[in-house]
Amino acid sequence: xxxxxxxxxxxxxxxxxxxxxxxxxxxxxxxxxxxxxxxxxxxxxxxxxxxxxxxxxxxxxxxxxxxxxxxxxxxxxxxxxxxxxxxxxxxxxxxxxxxxxxxxxxxxxxxxxxxxxxxxxxxxxxxxxxxxxxxxxxxxxxxxxxxxxxxxxxxxxxxxxxxxxxxxxxxxxxxxxxxxxxxxxxxxxxxxxxxxxxxxxxxxxxxxxxxxxxxxxxxxxxxxxxxxxxxxxxxxxxxxxxxxxxxxxxx
Amino acid sequence: xxxxxxxxxxxxxxxxxxxxxxxxxxxxxxxxxxxxxxxxxxxxxxxxxxxxxxxxxxxxxxxxxxxxxxxxxxxxxxxxxxxxxxxxxxxxxxxxxxxxxxxxxxxxxxxxxxxxxxxxxxxxxxxxxxxxxxxxxxxxxxxxxxxxxxxxxxxxxxxxxxxxxxxxxxxxxxxxxxxxxxxxxxxxxxxxxxxxxxxxxxxxxxxxxxxxxxxxxxxxxxxxxxxxxxxxxxxxxxxxxxxxxxxxxxxxxxxxxxxxxxxxxxxxxxxxxxxxxxxxxxxxxxxxxxxxxxxxxxxxxxxxxxxxxxxxxxxxxxxxxxxxxxxxxxxxxxxxxxxxxxxxxxxxxxxxxxxxxxxxxxxxxxxxxxxxxxxxxxxxxxxxxxxxxxxxxxxxxxxxxxxxxxxxxxxxxxxxxxxxxxxxxxxxxxxxxxxxxxxxxxxxxxxxxxxxxxxxxxxxxxxxxxxxxxxxxxxxxxxxxxxxxxxxxxxxxxxxxxxxxxxxxxxxxxxxxxxxxxxxxxxxxxxxxxxxxxxxxxxxxxxxxxxxxxxxxxxxxxxxxxxxxxxxxxxxxxxxxxxxxxxxxxxxxxxxxxxxxxxxxxxxxxxxxxxxxxxxxxxxxxxxxxxxxxxxxx
Lengths: 251, 634
Ligand SMILES: Cc1cc2nc3c(=O)[nH]c(=O)nc-3n(C[C@H](O)[C@H](O)[C@H](O)COP(=O)(O)OP(=O)(O)OC[C@H]3O[C@@H](n4cnc5c(N)ncnc54)[C@H](O)[C@@H]3O)c2cc1C
Ligand code: SF4
Ligand code: SF4
Ligand code: FES
What we know:
CATH architecture of the largest domain in chain A: Orthogonal Bundle
CATH class of the largest domain in chain B: Alpha Beta
Helix content of chain B: 25-40%
Shape of chain B: globular
Radius of gyration of chain A: 21 Å
Largest sheet of chain A: 5 strands, mixed
Radius of gyration of chain B: 24 Å
Number of helices of chain A: 10
Structural class of chain B: alpha+beta
Largest sheet of chain B: 5 strands, mixed
Number of domains of chain A: 2
Bound molecules: flavin-adenine dinucleotide, iron/sulfur cluster, FE2/S2 (inorganic) cluster
CATH class of the largest domain in chain A: Mainly Alpha
CATH topology of the largest domain in chain A: Fumarate Reductase Iron-sulfur Protein, Chain B, domain 2
Number of helices of chain B: 19
Helix content of chain A: 25-40%
Oligomer: heterodimer
Strand content of chain B: 5-15%
CATH superfamily of the largest domain in chain A: Alpha-helical ferredoxin
């Protein structure tokens, strides 16, 4: 059942690197991350890779496999033929620290720029009442495991370093949408803010983010497009915005 | 060397660490959070089923006393009862507070937080979000930290003025003040650069999680190398109950590379059943005497319970985990296992497909993607996996203070709360309850200090960390690790024998020598081989504690099953095993310590007939006296 696979893995640190060839054993049922681990244990003890859960839950093992952004732990070896050479490289959008490990601090900085959940002052913990249908929309976005594959694939920043300061990226567009749809969030989250302050305006709805999302979150259809539509609809109409908030709580 | 001064340093960014840090910061302390992974990726993120809290949203009969009783029963009465009491009382507030920080739990029809059934819990009690509750918990706490940072930015112009996360940074030693012996900080390295870092702080909260990576088959990640357990021990604190390790009954068994990955108990809580190769629901054959009157004896009654809990008893698939894990083990040994060496767990014939994908989305996804199994159409194959360590740092129940001044511990790394066996869902609530208490305990300790302690031992810590890189031609750390995992799995696993444990201890001695001779190639930048070589010290030390304590305890109870001492004895319930070690990790000692008697108002929450199964005659006399007192007072 086992066979020897050909792997090409990007290796390097401090700004230099190259693809290195390996021949490595593969057994039934294994995923790409298993093979990386086997390389560590047998041929390249200092090969750097992030992982935690090995079950697609933590979003640590993001990498590019044959050029496609994927979770290493959820990419089965059986999806490749035995004679195929599998190329594994780090995420392209973020600076490489070493081998498959990138500096993803960009995302943590963006997270701080989104104003936090703001509950009404007069509702005490324990008194929250929400219907399942009303929380479901935000729950979809809260499934996000912060793998940052969507951030990595988005062309606005993938090859345009200069856009990074102004662009929060799809992961944080869904965060804004999530908060906007939260039945108890009372903060002013008019979509123009997303459009102007967080760079939603740069997005031209290519849907690449939705395609790579391992949690199958409909980033474009359920978050980006509705926000963009509303931004156009209600530019400069605070009354409409207020009305939507009141409606949200009483429904 | 990079050096930082803080009031409180929290080691660990899982549920317990984040909750502790939030508390310390809310009490005005300058707080650092240090963790090995990226922010938001700690082990807690993997928790599936839910957080137990007696809110009574689904069944109004639930309250803290029922939760307390269930917790004590689950732990076979070995629990630190004060912790079990505080846990049951505080848990609802801690869950509600998450909601005020933005968490979105699944709802009941009347808009409250929904609660699900779980093994050992009398009523539906687990607040949850599908089967990704841990993600919700950690993200909420992570976002709460960010919210506090935003407040600080507004007030002081700096996000990190009062709370800062040092991600991908591993602590290898706690630092003490030479004069007073109190905690004075922590020493570690940054994984990304290999540079060393010193935290100068009078209070340290350990929230480093568990030890599962010392076993081959485990649901735990690489982070679970028992660092906090070892750091505490080396700093002079004590570990308690280390013989008790929870083997979760349902881990994946196939394919081999995912062996051990967890299949949440919610599958059974929501109706899934266990069958052997003969198609029999074998759990009915394994209801132990102590639980006889609480579990259904026929499939019909068990099935009725899901819709009518008042008039039926729960199905035995929902017995505490230790019971179910042993039963599966026996079935497989008796030759009635599934083709891949587990048993069948079936939900496909119990719920409509769309219900399954709604309630258990990540299980559906996990089996589909990793094993090519559609759980809405066919049964899963499952078997026991090393999951959780009940043992941990001995702490004061109210403040989570360890015996070394300035040291606090919360979450899986602390011991006592769960006794000999933890109930599902009681960990996430434990993290919140005792995380907050540890943060408060550390803050109060800092308030009372008259002088800042001075860290010592930095040079020694640095030399120790560099050793593996300086050797050439030594052992491969991956091989030493693998050998340790096999030793623990095979010899100190789910069923234990004296000879095997002695053999394990000899094995550990040899592995210690080999670990002392590991060599790591490559640079200091993000070098997993080097990191593992450093972690081996911790894994070996903790494994030795487990094996030594397990060898001493001559009975079977919860997460400790002895083939040569198969019964539970009242005598042993009163004896707790406490481990200590010398600062260099040598001289590991295990000593007995008496379990204090339960407070009168707590023990009288139980029926005498139930207590008779657990307590000695002397203790029962205490119970009778307590009862009499209670009658007199009322
Ligand atoms: C698959 C799975 C499912 C589970 N499901 C449930 C459930 O449904 N309900 C429930 O109640 N419990 C569940 N549990 C148990 C529960 O998730 C854990 O016990 C709990 O999350 C532990 O939390 P913690 O805060 O103690 O530690 P963790 O969340 O593990 O965090 C430990 C932290 O410490 C850091 N750390 C460790 N060592 C060092 C070091 N040397 N230096 C710096 N940082 C360090 C780590 O990086 C990490 O940030 C589950 C466990 C698993 C594995
Ligand atoms: S849809 Fe928008 S956000 Fe998503 S990848 Fe395309 S441009 Fe980026
Ligand atoms: S939205 Fe999806 S792709 Fe983007 S970070 Fe979250 S889980 Fe990953
Ligand atoms: S290791 Fe957690 S998502 Fe891959």
